[in-house]
Design a protein that fits this description.
Layout: H1 3-9, E1 11-14, E2 20-22, E3 32-40, H2 44-55, H3 57-62, E4 65-72, H4 75-85, E5 92-94, H5 99-103, H6 119-131, H7 139-148, E6 162-163, E7 171-172, H8 189-203, H9 205-208, E8 220-225, E9 230-235
Parallel strand pairs: 3-4, 4-5
Antiparallel strand pairs: 1-2, 1-5, 3-8, 6-7, 8-9
Helix pairs in contact: 7-8
InterPro entries: PXL2A/B/C (IPR032801)
Organism: Limnofasciculus baicalensis BBK-W-15
Protein name: AhpC/TSA family protein
């Protein structure tokens, strides 16, 4: 089956009400549908994707794009995710065991196994290796981009916005002008947003990560027209690789 057929037949728990419903319910009349298959809801990739969708919400709404997402977690994970990111709970579904990811043949991540390690320990080992770039192409370059800045990317933090990213003190957006100006992604700007995400996840780890066995599982993006024709897809190849163009991750829509 092609991705649309799989997604069209898939039912999972919806975060807004806990009811098992079809992923693509109420998308039939939309001219386009964006279906996001996220990794763990406490994963950097999932949190960043939701941040960008919120940033561009008005443009996406003007285009009439129906958005649905499914992430690895349970209802508590989903509610925490939506409360933090502002992603609409009625658009989010949960898949505790990453069944849909396997159906779509998405990258499970590095699968190094050592004798004597439990499933959870093995997942942590592979996650740490992927963070170091093993079995996760582009991850280190993307980490460094967060610190170095990116003149091809837009400014991420408004000058008047105050960012709270423990253990750093609250930072006003204008602070980043000191690192090189404005109107583009300044040095340390993206890294600060990622630090804020990390603080959120670590302080709510047991809520976000209901099953550590799937820490390395990657996700994918699928964009369809009104007839179900696949117009665009991106299959994540590693950590922080959730878009083909990380400088402008939603450029395929806008």
């Amino acid at each position: 089956m092609n991705p649309y057929e799989i997604l069209h037949q898939t039912q999972r728990q919806r975060v807004s009400d806990g009811i098992t419903r079809a992923l693509l319910e109420n998308c039939e009349s939309a001219p386009h549908t964006l279906l996001l298959v996220w990794s763990q809801l406490g994963d950097f990739d999932s949190l960043e994707y939701a941040w960008w969708l919120k940033r561009e919400a008005e443009k996406l709404q003007a285009k009439g794009i129906a958005i649905r997402a499914i992430g690895i977690g349970n209802l508590d994970s989903g509610k925490q995710f939506c409360n933090y990111t502002g992603f609409p709970a009625e658009w989010l579904f949960v898949d505790p065991d990453a069944q849909l990811h396997r159906q779509l043949n998405l990258y499970p991540g590095l699968c190094v196994k050592l004798p004597g390690l439990s499933t959870t320990q093995t997942a942590w080992l592979n996650l740490l290796l992927m963070c170091g770039g093993f079995g996760s192409p582009g991850t280190l370059a993307e980490v460094f981009r967060g610190y170095w800045g990116d003149r091809k990317a837009p400014q991420l933090i408004d000058d008047k916005e105050v960012v709270k990213a423990a253990p750093l003190p609250p930072l006003q957006g204008s602070f980043f002008k000191l690192a090189g100006g404005s109107g583009f992604q300044r040095p340390f700007e993206l890294a600060t947003l990622r630090l804020r995400n990390m603080a959120e996840v670590l302080s709510n780890w047991n809520t976000y990560v209901s099953n550590p066995a799937y820490l390395t599982q990657r996700g994918g993006t699928f964009f369809f027209d009104g007839s179900g024709k696949l117009l665009y897809e991106h299959r994540d190849r590693g950590i922080l690789g959730w878009a083909a163009n990380m400088s402008q991750p939603l450029s395929f829509l806008l």
